[in-house]
Design brief:
By secondary structure, the protein is α+β, with helices and mostly antiparallel strands. It has 5 helices and 15 strands. Strands 8-7-9-14-15 form a 5-stranded antiparallel sheet. Strands 1, 2, 4 and 5 form a 4-stranded antiparallel sheet that branches. The structure holds magnesium ion.
Length: 266
């Protein structure tokens, strides 16, 4: 069994601060998104905001990643690098912000539509966010880790979409990637027990089409093999004695609310 770090009170306070800042930067970037801007513009803004906050990027230089944040558009799944790609009306844009503040890592992601997006893109975003909320709901002391994985996967499958298998959520704390790995699929009654003080980044990556991905020549950007759209949402949660505490802010979308909606057969 992997050893999963347990944060003490000081660690929890540090994680609260870094996660809150990561989310604030993410939300500021979302406000600035507009058609005509390039993904490189967004990367530059991220660098400025992170520096102004007294933090530094957790991604820049990580295994030689060249960006301040990950920005991925439409068929790009995750790990896109800011550059010349110009954002257009109707695009879905994934922003993933990772920062280090006082040696604690905050990590959070969202997907937003630029202007009016197609109903199928809207549905993909809603269902992916709902699968994140389903995973968070399972992040309770006494549950096994597999409960989270299974909850995410069930929500995604019920919507008729596929989960990306190559990339997973993760423990987060002093380091960007700590134990455990948190796949977006798996058996409910499996894996280590969740305990108070664990801080976990849950991050479903969901493809509208098939689960296969490819990596572009830049060595980083993951795209769907069938060029279907993909969405990604991420929160860091603190396991407590009671309800999970979302360190990177909560959301109103719930899987249960969407479950009554008719699901197309694929
Ligand atoms: Mg992450």
């Amino acid at each position: 069994m992997p050893i999963i770090p347990i944060k003490d009170a000081a660690g929890i306070a540090g994680m609260r601060a870094s996660c809150r800042l990561a989310r604030a930067i993410l939300e500021e970037l979302v406000l600035r998104l507009e058609p005509g801007k390039t993904t490189g513009d967004v990367d530059r803004w991220a660098g400025e905001l992170i520096a102004k906050s007294g933090a530094r990027s957790a991604f820049l230089g990580y295994r030689k990643f060249p960006g301040q944040l990950c920005i991925s558009v439409n068929e790009e799944v995750v790990h896109g690098i800011g550059g010349a790609r110009r954002l257009g009306y109707g695009d879905v844009v994934k922003l993933d912000v990772g920062i280090i503040l006082d040696n604690w890592v905050g990590d959070t992601a969202t997907t937003v539509g630029l202007g009016a997006i197609t109903p199928s893109r809207q549905r993909l975003l809603e269902r992916t966010e709902a699968s994140l909320q389903a995973g968070i709901a399972a992040a309770r002391s006494g549950n096994k880790l597999g409960e989270i994985c299974h909850a995410v996967e069930s929500c995604v499958r019920a919507a008729g979409y596929s989960v990306v298998k190559e990339f997973v959520g993760h423990g987060v704390g002093r380091k960007l990637h700590e134990e455990p790995q948190i796949p977006n699929f798996g058996k409910a009654n499996s894996g280590p027990l969740l305990r108070p003080g664990m801080t976990l980044a849950i991050e479903p990556m969901v493809n509208e089409g098939g689960e296969q991905i490819r990596i572009l020549k830049d060595g980083w950007t993951a795209v769907t093999a069938d060029r279907s759209d993909s969405a990604h949402f991420e929160h860091v949660v603190l396991i407590t004695e009671g309800d999970p505490e979302i360190l990177t802010q909560s959301s109103s979308v719930s899987c249960a609310n969407l479950a009554a909606e008719k699901v197309p057969v694929r």
